[in-house]
Specification:
Blueprint lengths: L1 E4 L4 H5 L11 H17 L9 E2 L5 E2 L6 E7 L2 E7 L4 E6 L5 H8 L2 H7 L8 H18 L6 H4 E7 L4 E6 L4 E9 L4 E6 L1
Antiparallel strand pairs: 1-5, 2-3, 4-5, 6-10, 7-8, 8-9, 9-10
Helix pairs in contact: 3-5
Length: 191
Amino acid sequence: MGIWKIEETEAFFKGNVPQHRDVTHPHKRLQHLAGRFLLQFLFPDFPYELIQIADTRKPFLPGEQYHFSISHCGDYAAAIVSRESRVGIDIEIPVQKIIRIQDKFLSVEEKQSFLTDGDTADYSATTLLWSSKEAVFKWYGNGEVDFRRHIQLIHMHEGQSVIDCFFHKTHQQLHIHYQQFDHLVLAWVFD
């Protein structure tokens, strides 16, 4: 797993990894290339030429030689790769607008359990919960997930930076790992 602060030019990344799809917006194209570069950085023999995109827009390798997940926001890209386990990762920059949409992805019970004293204005904590659910969504990879109903956050182990989760679509207990930096939230899951 790794995080890459994007400070290089597009030419740097294009010289190291192929672009697998048409991305017209320059910054999004840079993020796309940085995520692919990070896969190569983590596993130098990563077979880029075999990457396919599922109907759900999740990139994958046929035959699952590697399981991988990529995320990007702002000037950062994050990736996680495993030979054995299905994985999902999400990186976010906390912003206040997350408060306006929290009811779309958090249940009443989750807000009561995870937001300090019912403080629903804590956008850093709310971003962590969003990022955790997004990592589970990417781990699953098959789409059609209702974040409120299907991804149930149960308990946070703060000293261990782990959130227990139950994923209803597969009836699995998952452990979401997270790290909070000054201006970033990172969450990842593997089975």
